[in-house]
């Protein structure tokens, strides 16, 4: 048995940041991970360039049963704090659309930065260490295949269920339930949607076609409403707008797409002496959608006549294309896990369990899920810092 101050399970973004902060306080920290290297999901993020934060990050950019929970951590460690850390290490970066910050070179730069920070904070990293169980006696005990660590604090940063080929497991959720903590039902988030059989027949031969849309999931107010690109795939829909809306989607709900945001597509057909037929409609729709998609749309939605009322109905359908997805592509293609350890079980300032002193949960394992575009990384850094300052 080895006695230590803090054991962090999971060497991803949240776990490494937590270990760094705890180490800076002079705590003896061991960081354990079952993988052969740290930060495997960091390395594949952002197309290999790591979208490490978003300058517009706000609590409103996150899903949770308690929308206020993330406020404390996000205020404690902001995008500006992360940018300062990146700049301190000389990492060059750039802004893409909508406030997303990416490394100029590679996600390896972020990994190197975190490893250096861990070394400076005297954090001991042990890879290939499989955590078997956690118990509480007088202290918390973490049992691995090789060692038993006795510690004052244990931080669970084991992530969610997304991308199982990267080693995702339900360990964090199982552990929470073992200690009597509620877990909000988990589901894939930021994930492509799968067409119904009918829609697949009508659209999937257009795989690769994309358009800017406004996507909304469900019918309740303030459910995801996103204006970005949509992509038709061999099985359904993807692209940023769809991924965003998917986090708000539940089976049985519709997804509504505005295919021509802020435009009156068929207005030319309403002009005096204008031509009103399928060819005229095709030309109008082609002005806002890729040609193949425009042709398919008009073919599938040709009105019985070309009266003003029929044109108005056709216009409305362009702005309210309602689909009933058959499902999602699942955790294999999901970027995040929606749901997780109930925030009501945790202290918002420290991420510590209210029921089990010394037990902390950070990052994706918690019921806080960000939008696409660097928000989930910011939550990982911020929640990790909050726990590291307390553990």
Please tag this protein with its features.
RsdA/BaiN/AoA(So)-like_dom; Elongation Factor Tu (Ef-tu), domain 3; 21 strands; FAD/NAD(P)-binding domain; seven-stranded mixed sheet; BaiN-like_dom_sf; flavoprotein; NAD(P)/FAD-dependent oxidoreductase; 2 domains; alpha+beta; elongated; FAD
Describe the protein in words.
With 391 residues, the protein is α+β, with helices and mostly antiparallel strands. The protein contains 13 helices and 21 strands. It has helices at residues 13-24, 40-44, 71-76, 79-88, 108-120, 171-178, 197-203, 240-246, 267-270, 278-286, 291-301, 308-319, 375-388, and strands at 2-9, 29-33, 51-54, 62-63, 93-95, 100-103, 124-127, 131-136, 140-144, 148-156, 183-189, 193-194, 210-217, 225-232, 236-238, 255-258, 321-323, 327-328, 336-341, 359-361, 369-370. The strands form five sheets. Strands 1, 2, 7, 8, 9, 10 and 20 form a seven-stranded mixed sheet that branches. β13 (210-217) and β14 form a beta hairpin. α1 runs parallel beside α5 (108-120). The model has no long low-confidence stretch (mean pLDDT 95). Keywords: FAD, Flavoprotein.
Please state the CA-atom Rg, rounded to the nearest Å.
24 Å
The biggest sheet amounts to:
7 strands, mixed
CATH class of the largest domain: Alpha Beta
Mean pLDDT: 95
Q: Which word captures the global form? A: elongated
